[in-house]
Amino acid sequence: MSQCPCNSGVNYSECCDVFHSESQLAPTAEKLMRARYSAFAKNKIPFIAESHAPGTTDFDKDEATKWATSSTWKGLEIVNTNKGQETDQTGTVEFKAMYADDKDNDYLHHEISTFKKQDGKWFYLDGQIVGNGPYKRATPKLGRNEPCSCGSGKKYKKCCGA
């Protein structure tokens, strides 16, 4: 038996698999968050799609599949849970998901997710990234020995890079 990817300390078959197989509904927003993380780790993308709130239009199943299969899922940390108990109708879960891409670069996805309970079932509404997220350059990095971008004809290190 294997431990559940959601870091609950319970075997997968007794933890998130019961939600993935639809034999049980997630009783809280946190349990749904854990099941969604495990679904990425186990490549159960249909569960991710079905756990989005009805009417969601910004979920791309192909992109989610690509991300899930090209990543190595390293762990989930629940930072904070607000409401989202069995009797509540909304809840938030702050979490940190650790993963590595196919080049073995490590990443941390830190998010505050909002959930809503509708007809007795929890759904993911949306999420807000905590922090700035990864920095991506708009243009390639200019090397020290390359011609300066100002057009002077000098090397960058002797001109604007000095």
List its traits.
162 residues, alpha+beta, 4-stranded antiparallel sheet, 4 strands, 20% helix
Q: How would you sum up this structure, described in words?
A:
The protein is built from four helices and four strands, in the order ααααββββ. The protein is an alpha+beta fold and 162 residues long. The protein has a four-stranded antiparallel beta sheet with strand order 1-2-3-4. The longest helix is centred in the N-terminal third of the chain and has 13 residues, at 29-41.
The total of helices stands at 4
- Topology as H/E string? HHHHEEEE
Oligomer: single chain
Rg (CA only): 21 Å
Percentage of helical residues?
Answer: 10-25%
What's the count of strands?
4
Q: Are there runs of 5+ residues with pLDDT below 50, and where?
A: none
How do you describe this structure in short?
The protein is α+β, with helices and mostly antiparallel strands.
